[in-house]
Amino acid sequence: MRAKISYAVTAAVLVVYFVLVGSRGVLLIEAGTPLTVAFGVAVLILPVIGVWFLWKNTEFVRDANRLAAELGAEGGLPVDELKRLPSGRVDRDSADEVFARRKAETEAAPDDWRSWFRLAVAYHDARDTPRARKAMQRAIALRKISP
């Protein structure tokens, strides 16, 4: 729940920022000189890119949460079987062991979104965020095309 609140607050702050930046871009365009119009258009591009990025990120999180809920209802969510160090951090050897099993599971069923979801969790536990995101995107895409 804390992550959802943090995400919502961050998104709201970004939207306010985009509105402020956009209004400055409009003011520059209204000034009417070729230079201020060029700068105004350039300034307006930034909020457009930001809104697009925020939308895609929100869509990704929503879809991943939907998959987690569905997998949880099936009883298929991965169990946290990782060993932890006294500091609370995940033991690297433990994460590698779980990752190897998840990767083998995914290779055995490459069209199953559930195995890709569990692989994404294993990547996340191994602190490989880019691969975790790609694996989750694959799970989302497979779920959208499967019944």
Describe this structure in words.
This protein is mainly α and 147 residues long. It is 80% helix and 0% strand. The protein has five helices and no strands. Helix 3 (92-108) runs antiparallel to helix 4 (113-125) and helix 4 (113-125) runs antiparallel to helix 5 (129-145). The longest helix has 41 residues, at 34-74. The chain is elongated, with a radius of gyration of 21 Å. The two termini are 29 Å apart. 17% of the residues are buried. The mean pLDDT is 90.
Number of helical segments with 4 or more residues: 5
Instruction: Give the end-to-end Cα distance, rounded to a whole number of Å.
Output: 29 Å
> Biggest β-sheet, characterized?
none
Q: Helix proportion of residues, in percent?
A: over 70%
Identify the overall geometry: elongated
Which class of secondary structure composition applies to the elements?
mainly alpha
Give me the strand/helix succession.
HHHHH
Please count the beta strands (DSSP E, at least 2 residues each): 0
Please, what is the average pLDDT? 90
In the predicted model, the low-confidence regions spanning at least 5 consecutive residues are: none
In percent, how much strand structure appears in the residues? Answer: under 5%
Radius of gyration from the alpha-carbon trace, in angstroms: 21 Å
